[in-house]
Amino acid sequence: MRIASSRVVSVILAFVSALFALPVAAQDAVPAVPAKKTVAVVDFSAKSISVVIGQGVQDYHFSSQYIELLNSELMTSLVNDPTFDVIDRARLRDLAKNGELANVTPSSMAELGKAAGADYIVCGDVELLEIDKKVQEFPGMSQVVYLGRMVVNLRIVEVATSRVIYAQKVTDALRQPVNEYTTMSVPAFLEILKSDVVKKLVTGISESISPIQIAAVHGDKVYLDRGSAAFSGGEILDIVVEVDKVYDKEGNILDIVEDRVGSVRVDTVRPKVAIATILEQTRPFQVGWTARRLAK
Fold first, then answer.
1. CATH architecture label of 212-293
2. What is the pTM of this model?
3. What are phi and psi of 9, to 5 degrees?
4. Residues 110-135: pLDDT tens digits?
């Protein structure tokens, strides 16, 4: 009886040990959360800006302070983006030889980024600013309409390779009617235009450095790892999966080959997550797959 009891006890102890070992094994299997990337922002230049003042706003005089405010708002928006860390502009200015970030040349971008400890350098220039005010006549009434357009060239440099990984011409055209019950000044209209441009810049920067990914899948719904800062609802995105990488002779990544596996539509937007309905899929979606906005 003692021998049998000993065997029973041994089996029980082995089972309990295995049971307690399961969470440890499961913990080891969980992939490590990738560290957030660090971004340094070089002030966007306006040296070659073309400013077009329409007949309706001839009293307005453009000031370079407008571009300084754009740089400041862009920096604030990027700092509030949870997908990456942003290096303080004051530290970046201290590292720049002449202290002026707008004067940093493309050839010195990577060196500046390495000195600052950045993974990426964000830079660009404001190419065009147009503004006008027109009066539209209707039967029995008239309406004032502000018209504006801004074009900004955005570039992102990968510090490790000195390679431009993203380049986009960001254009925003704004039409703002003003009725008899409201008033609007030229500076107030330009403030709206500036904020719209900054939102587009932040979206391009955020999603090129840290693409939108599927965080969870439940039935015909997917949860995306971006919330109200990225979506307003109704957006349609392609779901893609990486299938290969293209390298140069030095081993640097030149391109990533992706396979489109379906699409989703954003229906519900919460502060930190968006819930989307699956529109089509060639295979079951998985956590970690990338969601790409459709090109307009």
1. Beta Barrel (2.40)
2. 0.76
3. -60, -40
4. 788 888 899 999 999 999 999 999 98
